[in-house]
Amino acid sequence: MSDLRYALQRKVLVNVYQQKQDVVYTGYVTIVDDSGIILTTFDDGGSEDGAVYLTYAVIELVEFDSDDLDNMRFRIEIAAQQTAVSYGRMTTDFNLKRPLIRQVLETSMIEESVVMVLDRNSGELNEGTVTRISDHDFDFQIFDKFQLENHPKLVLPFDEVELVEFEGKELTLQTAAMGYLETMASVETNRVTSLTSIAKALAHAQQTKQLISLNPVADEACFLLAV
Fold it and tell me: Strand 36-42 and strand 24-32: pairing?
């Protein structure tokens, strides 16, 4: 916690590593309370990309000095000079009058914005919206972009949430598209795996300008969307 307060006071760029997740957050500590921090984050190109609330329990390591951070400082400077994109930056002002996590969730509920929540018990990271909030818990409506008809609702106590990603480019775009996405129905998945079938599918996609998903053999968990 002292490292994070130092980063806040000195406005130092840091890498924050998590206990159980591979995602590393790079950014500036914006505010600190007794339970966690809010970190303004940046994408790989150096552009500001929303923020994340992190509890102390989920943080494994805070890095202040590294080649990666030196490279990121350079990219942030270049991006600040070149980029004209303003959406996705953190726009909410926070204070220490109330718990930070409550402020983040209340803002999401009021603005009907999509956030990403890490549930400590399940270990799952889900996107969705906050539909109700009380003194100790909140209702979270999950949005599953891979199964559009699936909209489970969770009741999560504040102390079971390890992080909340909010604002940012992807979440801002998803918030804007939610009205349309909620009207869509799932379609049957059509998969091809043989070289001949793949070649035919790619030729057809080229002719029809169809959106397709490509899964590399070397990393089946990875996928690429393309036209």
Answer: antiparallel
Q: Determine phi and psi for 212, rounding to 5 degrees.
A: -130, 165
CA atoms within 13 A on the CB side of 28: 14
Which residues, including other chains, have CB under 8 Å from residue 8's CB and lie 6 or more apart? 29, 30, 31, 32, 37
> Can you list the alpha helix ranges (DSSP code H) found in 32-168?
67-82, 100-111
- Strand 125-133 vs strand 153-157: parallel, antiparallel, or unpaired? unpaired
Tokens read off for 53: 């609330």
**CA distances, 220 to each of 161, 216, 217, 224, 225 (Å):** 29, 6, 6, 11, 14
- Counted residue by residue, the chain has a size of 227
**pLDDT tens digits along 26-58:** 999 999 999 999 999 999 889 899 999 999 999
Residue whose pair of structure tokens reads 């775009």 in the numeric block: 173
Structure tokens at 104: 């983040």
CA angle 11, 13, 17 (to 5 degrees): 125
Q: CB count, 10 Å around CB of 57?
A: 13
Q: Indicate whether this model's pTM tops 0.90.
A: no
Measured between alpha carbons, how far is 110 from 10 in angstroms, rounded to an integer?
32
From CA 94, how far away is CA 9, in angstroms rounded? 16
